[in-house]
Amino acid sequence: MPAPGHSAIAIDTSQIPEHIRLELLSIVYDATAAYFQQPGVEERYQRWKAEKDKKAAQAAAK
After folding, report:
1. 3-class state of residue 7 by DSSP
2. HSE (CB half, 13 Å, CA atoms) of 36?
3. Which of 26, 36, 41, 42 is paired with 49 by a 20 to 30 Å CA distance?
4. Cα–Cα distance between 40 and 35 in angstroms, integer?
């Protein structure tokens, strides 16, 4: 949802050349890997994931 007073921007990703998509993926992958190398990040992620899974299981049980 765009911010009030701003229009939405649509990007047709099928128009992005494959080599550019791979370069963007590489940037995101490298940044994510570096982030997870920081102390405590993996542990926080695992706690978040467990809570998310717990909520999903509770919602499915209803």
Report:
1. coil
2. 9
3. 26
4. 10
- The residue ranges of the chain whose pLDDT is under 50 are none
Contacts of 24 (CB under 8 A, 6+ apart): 16
- Which tokens sit at 53? 């899974």
Q: Residue 53: which H helix or E strand, with range?
A: helix 41-61
pTM for the full predicted model: 0.64
CA–CA gap between residue 19 and residue 37 (Å, rounded): 27
Cα of 61 vs its chain's centroid, Å: 26
